[in-house]
Amino acid sequence: MILLVLAGASWYAGTIISDVAAGDSSGIRLGLDLKGGVSITYEAVEENPSAEDMADTVYKLQRRVDSYSTEAQVYQEGDNRINIEIPGVNDANAILEELGQPGSLEIQNADGEVILTGADVEDAQPVSTTNQQTGKREYMVSLNLTDEATEIFKEATTENLGKTLPIVYDGEVISNPTVNQVIEDGNAVIQGMESYAEAEALATQIRVGSLSLELTELHSKSLGAQLGEEALATSLLAAAIGIIAVILFMIVMYRIPGLAAGIALILYCALTVFVLWIFEITLTLPGIAGIILSIGMAVDANVIIFARIREEIAAGKSVESAIKAGFHKAMSAILDGNITTLIAAVVLGIRGSGTVKGFAYTLGIGIVLSMFTALAVTRWIMKSFYAIGFQNQKFYGMQKERRTINFLGKRGVFIGISLAVIAAGFVGMGIHKATGGNALNYSLDFMGGSSTTVTFNEDYTIEEISETIVPVVEEVTGDGNVQTQKINDSNDVVIKTRALDLEEREAFNAAMLENFGVEENAIVSENISGTVSAEMRSDAVWAVALATVFMLIYIWFRFKDIRFAASGVLALVHDVLVVLAFYVFAWISVGNTFIACMLTIVGYSINATIVIFDRIREHLKTLTDQSKESLKEVVNRSITQTLSRSINTSLTTFITIFFLWLLGVTSIKEFALPLMVGIVCGAYSSVCLTGAMWYMFRVRFPGRKKTAE
């Protein structure tokens, strides 16, 4: 029965994927790059808005539209316009109605004097609770004020206790709450809503009124996909080939357990599709890449378990006992590794925005589902195989005794190589900067550029745009990262490039006339800001920093030794800096996928480190002052015992990303290539550096207990 359910779930998920590949997104919401969406252009009512107010408004709108999709983009167009692109939807009017018309918001006292403006409101959210006395549901709006406004509001609520403080939106009172108590912490609640929908509508009005600028809608339009169906089809084909390759690899390496892991992996993929569908998570090509990466990561827990089972069989236990003991002994490493990464996902989801938040969702889903399939589904399948007759040791394998490799003896060489690569990366950035360029090859997402709308004489398809128009634009502008979007129901195509000067614009216009017969009056160009604003980059940095701190605290708590935590975090920093050096020398475009790539590496590389630390912790329990085995031998033995796991997990992950790089479109190749570098680097740092760093910390800071070195 369970197998039938699994088969049915996998089949149904397959039909959803088939529909997506065929361009039907009724099952899963697709992003701007795969399906298109709507574009809404706002204009500031103020005649000459400041650059600071425009930047602040862009950032706040980005946080707001994240509720529709973490892949939504907000950027400045010209001096006083803001463009919002929301994927996966086609009805611009519905979005405008939900988003609201950004206007002016004021919180006044009973005499009509302004106490606070919308800029003082940091957030507003609908809330529903149950009254403990009456048992009825109550609906309200929770307000969070900025730090600067908190003291002002405290004084206002003190002076107006028992009175009303009208909330006025564009001259109209939208709420008239009574002050029941002094608000000291900047967190207030507006009560008395009849329904959750009413509370949500009020919260939305307050949020849209908290912008630094008053905006008016200029126009809206429906956008086609940035990439064609071919790009989606090749990415899904890469996923299918990668999955098959991983399953075959697992069967060859681990026999019956490998087959069980393969079946569990298919279920994992099916569950991932269901979650995307149920929670309406917007799927983009980088999102597909992240899911494909998580396929490789999902195998990790199985590899840890299977290695333990083989060790138990080698120790003389029966297959049945070895399976039970293998799952039990692998549990701590699996839980610690996944919980550590899950902590990072939660922090990134709460503190991040845009791509960071989208990555956090995908990462969190992958962690939870992979733990379930590894610890529950794989266990059940293996027990089923054993029950139907696969009881001989030959079906499971036996761990061979390996000669302990002296990794610590080469730690000076390993550390030297790492420092040289990292230093070379910084030197390369300095050289790029000194020669008049940027330290990194920043794309439109970071630097902004020019957005040119061209009305062609015929209706080009997405594929035709990629094959005929893009090469012409690349040749004229010298920009290898041209982005295009087709406006639905028209011959208009939006072409985004780096910022073009007057001479380049003239050359662009001439090329359009020469190659496509487009007159100059059919070409409109505007400067645009990057979709990754300074505030979003700051959010990303702070989110990663906080995630790192929380991971450090968890590792410290679990291993009762801050030296483990410090070593693990240093390894993460090492991996990020090495991949950064690769970006410098390969001159790969740095955009939204750069952030996703770095976050993926942070989430991925900690797992291998935790497995090694788990072995060291296990062996330390038997190490005493009288033990003949030294601390150095313990570290070397722990790394050697987990070496096959480190290699196999990295290899399965590398396989999936390799096929993505081999078959993917250009933008995906630029995401997959540094990821492959990061996977190799993560394996290297876990095996060659983390144990060595912990050992050096242990020797340098031995603590209260002294052990033979």
Summarize the structure.
The chain has 709 residues and is of the alpha+beta class.
Set out the fold topology.
Layout: H1 2-21, E1 37-44, H2 51-65, E2 73-77, E3 81-87, H3 92-99, E4 105-108, E5 114-117, E6 121-130, E7 137-145, H4 147-159, E8 167-169, E9 172-175, E10 187-193, H5 196-208, E11 215-223, H6 229-254, H7 256-278, H8 285-314, H9 319-351, H10 355-387, H11 411-434, H12 444-447, E12 449-455, H13 462-477, E13 483-486, E14 492-497, H14 502-516, E15 523-528, H15 534-559, H16 562-586, H17 592-620, H18 631-641, H19 643-663, H20 666-700
Antiparallel strand pairs: 1-3, 1-11, 2-3, 4-5, 4-8, 6-7, 7-10, 8-9, 12-14, 12-15, 13-14
If you had to describe this structure to a student in words, what would you say it looks like?
The chain has 709 residues and is an alpha+beta fold. The chain folds into 4 domains: 45-101 and 218-223, Alpha-Beta Plaits (2-Layer Sandwich), CATH 3.30.70; 105-210, Gyrase A, domain 2, CATH 3.30.1360.200; 229-421 and 534-700, no CATH class; 450-528, Ribosomal protein S10 (Alpha-Beta Plaits, 2-Layer Sandwich), CATH 3.30.70. The protein has 20 helices and 15 strands. It has helices at residues 2-21, 51-65, 92-99, 147-159, 196-208, 229-254, 256-278, 285-314, 319-351, 355-387, 411-434, 444-447, 462-477, 502-516, 534-559, 562-586, 592-620, 631-641, 643-663, 666-700, and strands spanning 37-44, 73-77, 81-87, 105-108, 114-117, 121-130, 137-145, 167-169, 172-175, 187-193, 215-223, 449-455, 483-486, 492-497, 523-528. The strands form 4 sheets. Strands 2-3-1-11 form a 4-stranded antiparallel sheet, covered by helices on one side. It has a 4-stranded antiparallel sheet with strand order 5-4-8-9, covered by helices on one side. α15 packs antiparallel against α16 (562-586). The longest helix is centred in the C-terminal third of the chain and has 35 residues, at 666-700. The protein is globular, with a radius of gyration of 28 Å.
